[in-house]
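hiii so my PI (J.) wants the whole complex modelled not just the main chain, which honestly fair. so below is everything: three entries, each one labled with what it is. i double checked the lines twice but i was tired so who knows lol
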Amino acid sequence: MKKRLLCFIAALMIITAALSIAACSNNKTQYTAGQAEKVLRIDEENLGYPSVYTVSSRGRGYLLMSFIFDTLTWKDENGIIPLLAEKWDVSSDQKVWTFHLVKNAKFTDGKPLTAADVKFSFDYLKAHPHPWVYLNMIDEVKTLDDYTVEIALKQVYAPFVTDVAGNVPIMPKHIWESVKEPEKFNTPEAVIGSGPLKLAKYDKDGGTYIYEANKDYFYGKPVIDKLILSSNQNSLQALENGELDAALRLKYGEAIKLKEGGKFKVIEGPGLWVARVYFNFDIPEFNQREFRQALYYALNRQEIVDKATRNSTIIGNPGHIHPDSEWYFKDVKQYEFDPEKAKQLLDDAGMKDTNADGIRDYNGKALEYEFLVTDDKVNEAEMTKNYLAAIGIKINVKAMDQTNVDSLIKEGKFQLALSGHGSFGGDPVLLARFASKNVTVGSTPTVTAQGGRNWSSARFDQLFAEQLKQTDKAKRYEQVAELQKIIAEELPTLTLYYKKIILAYNQNKFDGWFFTKDGVAIAVPTVENKLVFVRGHWK
Amino acid sequence: MNILLEAVGLNKKFNGNTTVLNNVCLKIRRGGIAALIGESGGGKTTLCRVFTGLEKASSGKVLFKGKELGTLRGRSFDDCASLQYIFQDPYAALEEESTVSSVLQEPVNMCSRRGRDYMPPQEALTWAGLAGAAFLGRKIKTLSGGQRQRVSLARSLITRPDLIIADECTAMLDAQAAAEIGRIFKKLNQKLGLSFLIVTHDAQFLYQVVDYIYVLHEGAIVEAGPKDRVLNIPSAGYTREYMESMWEIEGGGLIEQDHLCQPQ
Amino acid sequence: MSKKIANKAAWAIVITMLSVGAFYPFISPYNAADFSFRPLMDPSTAHLLGTDEMGHDLLSMLLAGFRITLTIALAAALISTFIGTVLAVACAYYKNWVDTVIVKLTELFIIVPEIVVLLFFAVLAKPGVYNTILAIALFSWSKVARIIRAKSITAIEKEKIQYTLLLKGSIWHVLIKMWRELYPAVATMFIFQCSKAAVYESTLAFFGIGDPLAITWGRMIRTALNYEGIFTGGAYLWYLLPPIACVCIFVVALSVLAYDFERE
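here's the output for the full assembly
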């Protein structure tokens, strides 16, 4: 009897611990690098099959796909560089772009990459909309010869070279022309591209990716033989145990400790990742600017950065654009932490506590909302709850995982939400997320969009559309500054903080990491630029 | 003749093939004390359970006061209250930890909820030969088998039934307690006009209490008639065998006792 | 003898824990929701268990955890045990199709992964302590029902309970009558549900069901494990260990009690 009870107690203790660590999957596969094989191992999450349409629509999904599929242009630490297009010209009216392709690019099935594939890819992506690629401004894509493509635009589009030419994955025509449902296309043929790596194996359940070097890569032979991305639960431990050569998914505090330890090199860069508060504009009072301003005044953003994120972020800017960006404009309306001012604004807006229950009321309804947050932002939620309680607004926190929060926001099934996303840097076309549906130029990945009624401003829409056509950079900056002023004044979203990203790695094995300026493609913040695998040095 | 309970062509099969009751027909007269005798496993208990509704007959019907009784769920509360059943085992039928008064309270509550006239517990206990208010506070587990069976009887009386079916209710009692139960049955029959159907192996009971006998053999009624005739001039061969075996057991017991008393 | 001591100690622990839960505001040094202290302080006279990453006083959180964790555990167990028991008794009482339907439903809830039930619930529910309780009850009752059903089916064949059936007692009468038979199993199930709920509560908050800000032991364990420096230095001693110890002691005390009920 005693034995049984003891067993039971032991089991309970284990269950308690296991549940707390939350479903710890212990599939630490040991990949030992052979003498000849240069295997690089990095942590990653499971982002689906890395073909164009089957991979996750989040930024990192695009990244995994970009290892296989090349684009016309690309970016490195200094900005834009040629990739499949060795050079390009633009007509004087900025509407016709001519790309001259490299002659030695080949798909991994041996077929050469030609202008026909480029034309095909643009046409295919237009016919089959993709969450990352926006092609409305394109009028026509023509092949002039086997290695020259001409792209005519309907109207001037300022970020064309980076956000279109640097974003459209070039797919082999001979494979994709027969694909009718690309979302279901997940055969080995779906991952034939021209990039530096080819997919050797993808373990759907474990979320492990094994890429092999494409030795014939036109840009240069990769310096690694194999890249293994695995979803380790505990990246810190895996790195320390030598199961990983580089770790991205570390907490800021962990990385700092590693840096102090001296065994690993830690680099830190702009995350191009923003955490912000979403309003559902179907709720009447959220449409009152004073209400949104009051909320922003009430939040002590510096304290959130210090306490909730423990300095792994930098404080959010009311104008939304990251302060490191060349498009950042400083002189917008500022919201220093000021609860008294917040209360004043709410009073003026007629939101007063009429029934003395400590919660303000508006049109007979208490200001009480459900606050949807991702499960890693409970600290932020707790602080927000207190800040808002101090000005008489009650929130009930609901925490869910990122996928669920994404889809609830996208479907407009939320009241207030706190979430974050990448795709936050580079060209100010990212401000398209605040343009109304009437604006038909410019776009931002759908993962950052919110459902239900959105904020809209005719002036913002007009300015936004204009700046996309502006090719004089100084003039465009002025227009973008104006947009930031509107955002800071109107606050369609409350920008809380920007994440820094960190990479800790074993510099004795592989080095050459860099932060891509403005992120790859449409601002995917990363150190895993595929060029690192070509330009880096193995030790 | 005033018929209280009538079985018409009752058949009961278990698992589709084992026949337990075979075309049983019998009529129980109001105001009588009838006995049901026969070997163990002959279907007596099953027949009682069919009468009470705890068991469902495969075919045939049961008439009570001239109208057909369905299964337990189909019966009215009045029918259930008028036809009471006393279980064989006085130790299993009553909750050990309860008091006498709470046991007797159950039928009182049921009757008052449904607006049926009931006999006060005190009076029922008196009829059952358990006088004294102090008795109401006693715990069941402090009672002897005979006392428990009389509490069971008192519980049955509360609903003011017309018929009490008692399934070997004295089998687990000593002779003295059994005789006492017999006397109470007789008194209830005479004073209250209560009818009984008693399943028994007890010869004393047959001679002193009962006035009519049914003999059940292999699921069928093989003989039925007034006590004196059945006991003295049984017509069916089985009845004779049964009566002889009943006496043999008692006699055999005595012989054995004598044998033990003999010096070695 | 030692068993008796274990039993007494278990009762003492459970009662102490419940009273701490009831009266913690009087002994708590600070408001548990206050995070204005310097984060990650080591224990001192001002903060006996130090502070967490955000600057909450850990002792105050631990004490506040008694109320919510224990409330959730007891309430969830009470609801699931009640639903499970009633459905189980309904199976025994009504038999036939009612039994079939309930058994099928029970099987369904046992087969369908809890995560599916939870996600379904998360979509509909507003976050909060009540919904945590309901969610735990929702996927726990089936196990109770399965165990108690087996007990009820045996119990309802007992003669003392059949008497109630013969008087056309309702399912509630039968449930009350059967209580003494079912009580050990029901108590055991109740206590098992309690300990399970105490462990589950923290997980639920992260499925969008519970209030993720509710101060519970589960949340403390989770934040402690999320703190990268928990095992370097002694932080785990005052940060992680106390809530784990509380959950374990509670669960172990309850299992000692459950074991005694099972044996009874």
